[in-house]
């Protein structure tokens, strides 16, 4: 059954941090600004007689391709109609609130909002796991490779660990509810594919062991709710050493934030957004001010003090 003769369905999909520093391609978290604002794309869907009508609006719509048929949201709709052999159609509006190439899971947010909205509209033909796999495949078409560390937290909320097993794509792990995640987007755009190309094809054995140790220790600390241990091991040995220099101002910001008493700082996804962690709202607000003055360099850049978004994608 399609969602006919009803008010258009409106779906919000939150911004997310891939990797969360310590879990390259394997860990991700959804973000919720503490001021209550929405930081993520919104897709609205309604029924039409046939085909796909699509429009893109919002603050970052001008950065998307002009050819609407190239938009991933349009392609998600075509895929759904074809797969379900529908004779009727859908109209979708993408409100593009996240900057492209920001490291905040912008493409994931569009894909997840679109597929969630389509699935709801058509009466839930896909279950949660199947829909998540589909989200990963579509997002991979934009970012250049299939990784779930943005789509999984964006869809399901909280902190998600990728399992990539046949039965289960990911699992939620406990987070530290008293932590604030200050996220700063400087205003420039970096392509995930290019930032992935900076990484080596192979790593030393010692680095591989450190990666496994830090990630497993972080997961252990999360279950134990051992903040000190979690911060001590929240280290990125796979990506940050190669990406840091490609992000203007990142290393200086990381140093300044440490001096201000922030607990740790890392790259959100493939950058240029950085995240910085504290358990003090006062320190978070101070870091926000500093980042606004020193890290945000272009128009459109922003800083948000966030908690994790535990709800994930939802109707709004
Ligand atoms: N894990 C991916 C990367 C995600 O770092 O390349 C980017 O959001």
TrEMBL record:
Its main location: cytoplasm. It is found in: Cytoplasm. GO terms for cellular component: cytoplasm. PROSITE patterns: GHMP_KINASES_ATP. Pathway: Amino-acid biosynthesis; L-threonine biosynthesis; L-threonine from L-aspartate: step 4/5. It comes from the Bacteria. Its EC number is 2.7.1.39. Catalyzes the ATP-dependent phosphorylation of L-homoserine to L-homoserine phosphate. This is Homoserine kinase. The gene is thrB.
């Amino acid at each position: 059954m399609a969602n006919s003769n009803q008010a258009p369905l409106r779906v919000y999909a939150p911004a997310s941090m891939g990797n969360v520093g310590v879990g390259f391609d394997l860990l991700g978290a959804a973000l919720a600004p503490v001021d209550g604002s929405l930081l993520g794309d919104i897709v609205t869907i309604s029924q039409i007689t046939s085909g796909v009508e699509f429009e893109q609006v919002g603050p970052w719509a001008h950065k998307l391709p002009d050819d609407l048929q190239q938009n991933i949201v349009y392609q998600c709709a075509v895929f759904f109609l074809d797969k379900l052999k529908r004779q009727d159609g859908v109209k979708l509006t993408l409100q593009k609130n996240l900057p492209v190439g920001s490291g905040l899971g912008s493409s994931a947010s569009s894909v997840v909002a679109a597929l969630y909205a389509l699935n709801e509209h058509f009466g839930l033909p896909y279950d949660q796991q199947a829909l998540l796999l589909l989200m990963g495949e579509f997002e991979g078409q934009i970012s250049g490779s299939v990784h779930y560390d943005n789509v999984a937290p964006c869809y399901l909320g909280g902190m998600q660990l990728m399992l990539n097993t046949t039965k289960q794509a990911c699992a939620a792990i406990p987070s530290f509810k008293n932590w604030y995640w200050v996220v700063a987007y400087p205003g420039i755009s970096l392509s995930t594919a290019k930032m992935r190309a900076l990484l080596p094809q192979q790593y030393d054995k010692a680095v591989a062991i450190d990666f496994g140790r830090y990630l497993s220790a972080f997961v252990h600390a999360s279950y134990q709710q051992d903040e000190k241990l979690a911060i001590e091991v929240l280290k990125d040995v796979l990506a940050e050493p190669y990406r840091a220099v490609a992000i203007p101002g990142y290393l200086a910001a990381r140093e300044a934030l440490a001096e201000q008493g922030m607990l740790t700082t890392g790259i959100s996804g493939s950058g240029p957004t950085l995240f910085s962690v504290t358990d003090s709202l006062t320190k978070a607000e101070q870091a926000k001010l500093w980042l606004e003055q020193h890290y945000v360099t272009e128009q459109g850049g922003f800083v948000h003090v966030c908690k994790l978004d535990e709800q994930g994608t939802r109707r709004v």
